[in-house]
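new request in #modeling-help
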Amino acid sequence: MSVSAVADEATADSESGRTNYLNAERGIWSWLTTVDHKRIGLMYLVSVLVAFMLGGAFALALRLELLTPKKTIMSADAYNQAFTLHGAIMVFLFIIPSIPAALGNFVLPIMLGAKDVAFPKLNLMSLYLYWIGAIFALSSVLTGGLDTGWTFYVPYSSTTNTAVISVTFGAFIMGFSSILTGLNFIVTMHKLRAPGMSWYRMPLFLWSIYATSIIQILATPILAITLLLLIMERAFHIGIFDPALGGDPVLYQHFFWFYSHPAVYIMILPGMGIISDVIAVHAQRRIFGYKAIAFSSVAIALVGFIVWGHHMFVAGQSEMAAVIFSGLTFLVAVPSGIKVFNWVGTLYKGSISFSTPMLFVLSFLFLFSIGGLTGLFLGMLSVDMHLHDTYFVVAHFHYVMMGGTVTAFIGGLHHWWPKITGKMYSEKLGRLSCALYFIGFNVTFFSQFVMGSRGMPRRYYNYLDQFQPLHAFSTVGSWVLGLGFLVMLYNLLDSLKNGAKAPKNPWGGLSLEWEAESPPVTENFVGRPIVKNGPYDYGGASS
Amino acid sequence: MSIDPIDIGSFWLPKASSTTAHQVDWAFDVVLWMAVVFFVGIVGAIALFASQYRRRRKGEKTSTVDHNTTLEIVWTVIPLLLLGVLFLSGLRGYANVLVAPAESLEIKVTGAKWFWTFTYPNGYVVQNELVVPKDRPVKLLLSSQDVVHSFFVPEFRIKQDAVPGQYTTMWFNATEAKEIVVECAEYCGTSHSDMLAKIIVKPEAEFKDWLDSAANESAGKSPVEYGQILFTKKNCFTCHSTTGVRIVGPSVKGMFGRKEDLEGGAAVTVDENYIRESLLEPNAKVVKGYPAAMPTYKGTLKDKEIDALIAYLKSVK
């Protein structure tokens, strides 16, 4: 984006090589008390990556256990706890904060041309709430584990003797972190845009964060209340959900999915935003259908609120409700399709670079298409009767959540890594890690579609012998996937030490973060940027 | 109980062994082919563009076309219409399994950790082996004694949660005389994945004979023999071994006459009354170090059956 670089004091260039947000202050205390959105974003980044590795270790252990139909390495109870923690960690500690709180915190104010978010101290508090919630959730590992599944369905969760309260309380606290971050971002986008930064000049990543923030603010309180009611039931035997106490277990499922389905869009929308930005930069082309992509994010956010019942077609809700939820569910497919078509349109007559970030974007388009299209199977009432709670569902949501969100997150991480760290990683290793990731992912999860539609239920410790070849295939895939992550981790960490110094704008991006230094100075810009063009004005003069 | 594998009918789906399964398969095929066409279209376009417009040198001129209203309308409206088709296709098969035909044989199904209990209209009760007539609709009335379970029959393409505190229904009409796998599909704890059952489909006449003789299965057997059958049929063996090995609950080997320490500090000698109480009120006196995990058999065991079980347990040394 061409900026008249305002330069009240144009001497900035000489000092920028040395002072930046990373070394402006030193010592651990300066990090723990910082209100700089970039430092907070970086601390989130490290935290969610640690959570991801922990959740990933559980996943590898689960796949290893499933190599054989009976016991392989762990007991049934250990298996049940491992898949519960895998799910809870990946959802609450990793995916939900991953893109908005880590990458979003870092680039959102810079993209707007702002010095920071609207409420920097609140931002720091959100990080502390996340940490405190995470400690509560993870403390369960030491106090007997948790075996309810990440969904905490009652009456199982109100009767099991594992650590339900500490984990749900942890999720409750992390929910506030999520709400406050969403609030902070919405206010920032309304109030702190640089002169000339109209709504339609915002990068699409910001539109997706905006839509995400709406859901975070509106839906997360429902989860908080639900988990609080569950805690009351367990601790004080107040009958709400457990029929033994006069409650209704299906009511719990309604409450839970009333949050957790919109939460799916909290997880995927920011990923979609990353794709829009990275694809335009690495194809050096105007984004195709800016407004269509922007408003489809908002449409997904709104329609996403009224489809929760599709998790419950066979759960005992009324048949009429099931029919209505099925119809509404298909509506969400429309804006998702619009996005995919527009991204493909953006490749048309572009100048496509097969850089590491772009390879992850292409992987995303492939994997997310499969994830989205297999969702159609599950939205159909009759087909869902067969596929519900099988590995088909497991494969579907991994294609969306991992193939979609995680792929976009990694792509975005590689895209902004030079900006965040000031270092360039090896393109060669980056491409290799993407190839391993892509192959490993498909081997691991495509086989699970086949297992599921043939009748393999999810959350099974033992399984019928006939499923072993597919399970073994999937397990081998998980090793390839794990190797891909190791190469990626090595590549990124190695760049910190041995990487070349990153230029301001390694990819030829036009949005404001590429006008800032790599890494940026403490308040992002010297002087205030004035925005004259849109973020995607490639290929000639703007119209 | 040995379980036959699920019969696989095609690359994607098990064999269709009921009258309604074909409608689900039809809907599955509709969405599968629609998905394949869209996927090939999307990925084909990406592959084409990626090779056609790969970057050959820096600073290439790129298209400035940034929207096309006609295209946007086309790729909004056509998918919307196709999604309507999918919705209706799914609705059709669903509507047909909602209401069981009036002439259905109604069987009560109760889920409990970790077995299924089937109660026939004549009062006959059996665990984990549901015998049904071929070519006649069977309606299942489901409920649960403890947590949520789900009754899943892959070859019939049906699944329904069994929810404590309420009744749900499902029905099927089996078209082949064979054994069919039932799996619990809603996570329910330690032995969730062992909560399997089978449906044994018999021709109508054979089914009638079976139901008549099933009602007096103890005829001509000693109490110990009958008790041994019940120990398997009532699924005791999934939690209690006869060899001294710990599974979920204590092994029954040499149990009779033994003195057991209880949770809470008291002790008890295993006698006829303790066994009876443990069957009917399993969590009244739980052996120390074991979970209070056993469901009650109140209402599912008759006195005669309890007597036989006690006789059998005395004999396991």
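bot summary: The beta strands of chain A are 3-4, 530-531.
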